[in-house]
Specification:
alpha+beta; Glutaredoxin; 4-stranded mixed β-sheet; 30% helix; disordered C terminus; Nase-assoc
C-alpha cells in the first residue's frame, strides 16, 4: 500500500469520496488544503507539466462554469498565472506518492494504475456530486 499526499478542497464531497476509496484500498493519506498550500510555479508544475494546460483546471470552478474563464483559450503561462493567483481553479485532487510520482484529478482507472484501487464505491469519483452540482461548501 502507498502513502499519498492528498491535496483537496476542505468540505468537498467529491474529495471525501475519493479519500474514502483510497483508504478502503489500504492507502494512508496526508491531507493538505489545496487552497491554502503556498504554491510556487515549480511546485505546481511538478503536478501539471505532463498535461495540456486546459486539463489543469477545475471545470466546476465558478469562473469556469459561468463562462467568465475558458480554460481551452489560455496558454500554459497564462494558465499557470491564473492557478497561482486563484487555487480554486486547480483541478483536484492532486496526489503525490511517497516516491514523488504525481497525479492530477481522480479518474478511477488512472488512480488504480497509480496506486491500486479496489472495491471503489459505485458511481463516479472524479466529480463533485450534490443536488446543485456544486460541492457542499460555498466555494466550488
Amino acid at each position: 500500500m502507498a502513502h499519498i499526499t492528498f491535496y483537496e478542497k476542505p468540505g468537498c464531497g467529491g474529495n471525501a469520496r475519493q479519500r474514502a476509496a483510497l483508504e478502503a484500498a489500504g492507502h494512508t493519506l496526508e491531507r493538505r488544503n489545496l487552497l491554502a498550500e503556498p504554491w510556487t510555479r515549480e511546485t505546481l508544475l511538478a503536478f501539471l507539466a505532463p498535461l495540456p494546460p486546459a486539463a489543469w483546471f477545475n471545470r466546476s470552478a465558478p469562473r469556469i462554469k459561468s463562462g467568465e474563464l475558458d480554460p481551452d483559450a489560455v496558454n500554459a503561462e497564462a494558465a499557470l498565472a491564473l492557478l497561482l493567483a486563484e487555487p480554486l481553479l486547480i483541478r483536484r485532487p492532486l496526489l503525490r506518492r511517497e516516491d514523488g510520482a504525481t497525479l492530477v484529478g481522480f479518474d478511477t482507472a488512472e488512480v488504480h494504475a497509480f496506486v491500486g484501487l479496489h472495491d471503489a464505491p459505485p458511481g463516479r469519483l472524479d466529480v463533485c456530486v450534490s443536488p446543485s452540482g456544486h460541492c457542499a461548501s460555498p466555494e466550488s
